[in-house]
Specification:
The protein is an alpha+beta fold and 167 residues long. It has one helix at residues 9-60, and strands at residues 118-125, 139-146, 162-165. It is elongated.
């Protein structure tokens, strides 16, 4: 009987399995790359906001929310959860900033996860400057940041927050 040429069922199944494994690895790599790109975008946005806030400080002697250098880290309930407000002084002034020469940015972007960037003058950090989340031995620091991928925030600090320490 003549032998027919072709692939056996086992060979076809092995090829399908290999393609499945490669596809899975590709999807995982793409997701990881997207997450890293979002983090990099947030860090870039925070750097730009930080620069604008620094210029506001140089011009007016105040940080957003009318916080002076002496007042930073000295109390609570002084956070700004929306940096686009007049009180933040970055896009417009509420009329209380002396020597305001803004706007210091065209607009305040939304972070890659759809949340607003924030300014917190008593953000709690560990001794190695990681978000504290109620651990003992924490200290306050002024930061500008994003609540990160999980979006949990407003005084709920956690490891996925993306911040830049001001002081």
């Amino acid at each position: 009987m003549p032998r027919l040429k072709g692939f056996t069922l086992v060979e076809v199944l092995i090829v399908i399995a290999i393609i499945g494994v490669l596809s899975t690895l590709t999807v995982i790599a793409v997701r990881s790359a997207r997450q890293k790109a979002k983090i990099a975008k947030a860090q870039h946005d925070i750097d730009i906001i930080y620069t604008a806030m620094g210029q506001l400080m140089v011009d007016t002697g105040e940080w957003p929310g009318h916080q002076t250098a002496e007042e930073i880290n000295s109390g609570s309930a002084n956070e700004l959860w929306d940096l686009a407000t007049d009180a933040a002084g970055i896009l417009s002034s509420d009329g209380l900033y002396l020597n305001w020469a803004g706007p210091y940015m065209g607009d305040i972007p939304i972070d890659p996860w759809g949340n607003k960037y924030f300014f917190d003058t008593d953000y709690q950090l560990t001794t190695d400057n990681k978000p504290c989340n109620g651990n003992a031995g924490c200290h306050n620091s002024a930061v500008v940041g994003s609540f990160g991928p999980d979006g949990i925030g407003q005084n709920l600090y956690n490891a996925d927050d993306i911040i830049k320490i001001i002081k």
